[in-house]
Design brief:
By secondary structure, the chain is α/β, with parallel strands linked by helices. The protein has 30 helices and 19 strands. 43% of the residues are buried.
Length: 697
């Protein structure tokens, strides 16, 4: 018995035929359950499809009762129809329902994971994208047994998503802390942060629960051989917190094994589950005659909406967005947002044309507030098409019915089966699209097991230098102590400086030391404090562009980098800066969004490199204090509150109209909230709606 059905054909059946077909499916699936395990993907695939079929056809209402019994038997208790289920099944659904979380019912595997955690054990959970892992975190918080919680997330977009959800559900019982400027003396606190932000905090002692989302990022290996500094920082962050945490919960998708050395002091239970709450139809389009024509056809089919289109790079996303926009199929669908983009980003950005056609774009060169808005409108069905790169797949939850995997690469490197599975897993969403659709324009990668090798759980004798510098004395073998001692002596800096800068890589730090030593004639340009002059900024840019390629910062040369930093500092508002940039732009119009790559670089990579230059300048006897630049550059020389609200989905162009120099974050939030509710004339209708969504009560 295979349980293979042509589900699309049922839409063409008569009522009489359909009832007979559904009866047979339920009967055959129940029989098959006796021959297999109840986490068999074949069985799990039937439940969402039946749910969709029954909800679609009124004539099948009488099958809600037997369907609920089947869902209970499989363990997908969240599919039990509480209004029509037999009393036994209804009791199960009610027993696993959480009123405080919208009365949602958990499924069997979620309950299993919760039981492990509530028994006080550490858990590493590997589950499909549609499993509902975030609900487990919320359920743990809801118990109230964890007073101080740290949640490490890979992206700022996810930070904001968690912040919104936690604020909505737990603001009366927990302080939610997300920024370095925020502190809390409350008994119940949830700290949210990326690994870079968490490792910089000094108030994370005595943690009750550590949560690490997307734990596979602890693996520092790369098929391309490239060093992943974010993975190294994540390992260091997790190590520091494990020393102070009573319990930890690591979660992520589609991992087969996690490696741990037998000498590791950390014990945990690894739970790998195949439980998926949605079904997926896959369409193989790799051999179509004209892929571009077929892409256009599938993208504009309403039955596929909302549809994510995955491509390899930001440039590719821009090109595909314009290709679709030029079809003029949805012209004027979001003209108000299109005009806002044109008005607030200088007028030359062709993204405005795409948005007017109902097409959103999501990649690392899109401003965060705009990306957040695109995702909101996509989830609401206003933007039916969203073209994305891996930044969306790894960092944001979306409600997509369909996923078109148009490319097989991330940048220039073929993605592996693990990444492919994560992209495919974005199709379908529990409660909205029981059956997702995936369109493949290339052959999928070969199936392979995914093993995660986190240095934090392995033999510390072989720890990378970037983790070794954080190891405490009782954990560090003698060889590590000796290695770290050699590093500090050879680099000529102290252990605290080495820890702070280790994310750059020891090889980069050695280069910085060498560059400063050789630039004897330019040393006076490194000796400054306060606000740097042009030649002093240029000297910094000359050095960092020997450590990284200029294009990694979105610029063509060190001189252009210095000019952009200088203009960003001199601009009285972000609107002024964008107008200056747009008016002077003369390159390929598809590259106009590189300014946002520059702005992202200002947030972390440039300040980190400038800090390294300062540290080694001081180590060689140069009087240097770059603290003001290191403080102002990450926030683009704006007030902290303006940048923080941008991360929360409020465009800086709006905030700058209302903020005053004395405003706290809460002050300006309240100002904007009241302005949007009171229809302030300084706000357009689209801005009022934007603020209402971004700043909920």
């Amino acid at each position: 018995m295979k349980l293979i059905y042509d589900w699309n054909e049922f839409d063409h059946s008569t009522e009489f035929e359909l009832k007979g077909q559904v009866f047979d499916i339920i009967q055959e699936t129940a029989a098959y359950l006796h021959e297999t395990t109840n986490d068999d993907p074949v069985v799990l695939n039937v439940i969402p499809r039946l749910a969709q079929l029954i909800s679609k056809h009124e004539c099948l209402a009488s099958f809600k009762e037997p369907f609920s019994s089947l869902a209970r038997a499989v363990g997908l208790w969240n599919y039990i129809d509480k209004n029509n289920a037999p009393s036994r099944d209804r009791l199960v659904a009610e027993a696993v329902s959480v009123p405080e979380l919208g009365n949602i019912s958990l499924h069997r595997e979620q309950i299993g994971a919760l039981n492990v955690l509530l028994a006080g054990r550490n858990l590493v959970l590997s589950a499909p994208t549609s499993f509902g892992k975030s609900l487990i975190i919320d359920a743990l918080v809801l118990t109230g047994r964890y007073k101080r919680i740290v949640v490490i997330l890979p992206t700022i977009a996810l930070l904001d998503e968690f912040r919104r959800r936690f604020t909505r559900r737990f603001r009366d019982t927990y302080d939610i802390v997300m920024y370095s400027s925020e502190t809390s003396a409350a008994r119940n606190v949830i700290f949210l942060g990326t690994q870079e932000r968490i490792i910089a905090r000094s108030d994370l002692s005595k943690i009750d629960l550590l949560v690490v989302d997307e734990f596979y990022k602890l693996d520092t290996r790369s098929s391309s051989g490239k060093r992943d500094e974010r993975s190294l920082i994540l390992n260091a962050s997790v190590y520091k917190l494990l020393k102070n945490s009573k319990q930890f919960f690591l979660l992520g998708p589609n991992i087969d094994h996690i490696r741990m050395d037998k000498t590791s002091p950390w014990n945990f239970q690894f739970l790998r589950t195949r439980f998926s709450t949605v079904a997926v139809d896959t369409f193989d389009l790799k051999n179509v005659d004209n892929k571009e024509t077929r892409l256009i056809e599938e993208a504009f089919k309403e039955e596929n909406w909302p549809v994510l289109i995955f491509v390899s790079s930001p440039k590719r996303a821009n090109d595909i967005a314009l290709l679709l926009a030029n079809e003029n199929r949805l012209h004027g669908h979001r003209s108000d947002l299109s005009l806002w983009i044109e008005s607030n980003y200088g007028g030359k950005w062709e993204l405005s044309k795409c948005v007017a056609s109902g097409i959103g774009v999501h990649h690392g060169r899109i401003p965060r507030a705009l990306s957040s808005r695109f995702v909101k409108l996509f989830n609401d069905g206003v933007l039916p098409i969203l073209i994305c790169t891996s930044t969306l797949i790894e960092g944001v939850n979306t409600a997509a019915q369909s996923v078109i995997i148009y490319d097989k690469k991330i940048e220039r490197e073929d993605f592996d089966f693990f990444t492919f599975s994560n992209i495919r897993g974005r199709a379908g969403r529990l409660g909205q699209y029981h059956t997702g659709r995936v369109f493949l324009f290339n052959a999928p990668p070969d199936v392979s097991d995914v093993d995660v090798f986190p240095p934090v759980f392995l033999d510390y004798e072989n720890a990378p230098d970037e983790l070794a510098v954080y190891l405490e004395e009782d954990d560090a073998p003698a060889s590590i102590t000796q290695r770290v001692s050699v590093l500090t002596q050879s680099l000529g800096i102290g252990i605290s400086d080495l820890q702070r800068l280790s994310g750059l890589g020891i090889d980069v730090l050695e280069k910085v030391r060498g560059i400063i030593a050789e630039r004897v004639e330019e040393k006076h340009y490194l000796s400054w404090s306060g606000r740097p002059k042009w030649n002093e900024i240029l000297e910094l840019c000359e050095i960092v562009c020997r450590l990284r390629r200029s294009r990694d910062f979105g610029v063509r040369s060190p001189r252009q980098l210095a000019m952009w930093i200088t203009k960003l500092r001199a601009s009285t508002s972000m609107s002024e800066f964008f107008r200056w940039y747009s008016d002077g732009f003369t390159g390929d119009i598809n590259e106009i969004d590189k300014v946002f790559l520059f702005l992202r670089s200002c947030e972390h990579s440039l300040p980190e490199l400038f800090d390294a230059v300062q540290t080694f300048a001081i180590a060689t006897g140069i009087s240097a204090d770059y603290s003001l630049l290191l403080d102002e550059l990450p926030r683009w020389f704006r007030m902290d509150e303006v940048k923080q609200l941008e991360e929360q989905g409020v465009p800086m162009q709006i905030t700058e109209r209302f903020i005053s120099s004395t405003d706290t974050l809460q002050d300006i939030r309240l100002k904007l909230f009241e302005a949007s509710r009171n229809l302030d004339p300084k706000l357009s209708k689209i801005e009022q709606d934007w603020l209402t969504d971004a700043l909920p009560l």
